[in-house]
Specification:
The chain has about 210 residues and is of the alpha/beta class. It has two domains: about 80 residues, Methionine synthase domain (Methyltransferase, Methionine Synthase (B12-binding Domains), Chain A, domain 1); about 120 residues, Rossmann fold. The chain is built from nine helices and five strands; from the N terminus they run ααααβαβαβαβαβα. It binds cobalamin.
Length: about 210
Amino acid sequence: MPTFNDLAQSVISGNLDQVTDQVQALISSGTDPVEIVNQGLIAGMNVVGVRFKAGDMYVPEVLMCARCMHSGLELVKPLLASKNIHSKGKVVLGTVKADLHDIGKNLVAMIMRSGGFEVIDVGIDVAPEKFIEAVKEHSPDIVGMSALLTTTMPAMKDTIDLLIKEGLRDKVKVIVGGAPVTQTFATSIGADTYAADAITATDLCKELVGA
Ligand code: B12
């Protein structure tokens, strides 16, 4: 059976077949899907992040790693989703305008669903107006926004400001996240809360809806 480290290494090397085989082997052996994600897939992606920043990896290689991550997540998804049946609340979740990073957002969606939330994933590069449209259409309990770039973080504030302008701010709770986002930033833009990872995000959402 592969170790978590083997899986992380396969993500780092962008080897899609190997990632698929190893995730499947870990699932078959009864390994906790949350551990496969955290200790294998995310651990690998964290190393990719460090190397990318240092200039040791380039965008095409990172995209290969992202593909591996995506396929791995797709394999564990059904296991996570089957854990809960009753909806604890509805979340509209998206990556903000001009930001195309979706791995973290997808993970948050997956863990929230496994925690019993109905998640409406509005995708990437979501303009404030599109978030508002989704709020009007779905009447969620919570709006979740993800940003991975310092340049796109202000779009979170723009979205909250538009919620206020449209008279919708009191109807939803707002949670924000993504690597550059902090609690201080979240507070400064008027979000209800911030979480550094998908599991904390899900726990905080339960608190926000009183579940
Ligand atoms: C993968 C990646 C890419 C991929 C994205 C593929 C995809 N489908 O997502 C590609 C190659 C396309 C890419 C492109 C770019 N990237 Co990039 N990318 C990354 C990288 C290496 C990993 C991000 C990731 O997926 N991490 C793994 C996931 C699981 O972690 P996460 O996203 O942080 O999510 C967790 C938490 O943050 C939290 N969370 C996330 N979202 C939310 C939402 C809510 C509501 C909550 C509560 C919590 C939460 O929970 C998640 C799970 O625990 C990071 C490095 C890093 N350290 O973050 C750079 C990084 C984010 N990228 C960076 C840059 C500069 C770029 C580009 C501008 C590069 C370029 N010159 O073209 C472009 C911008 C494209 C765009 N317009 O968005 C910089 C940003 C610098 C900055 N401070 O702004 C980083 C930090 C790399 C670096 N150090 O230089 N990138």
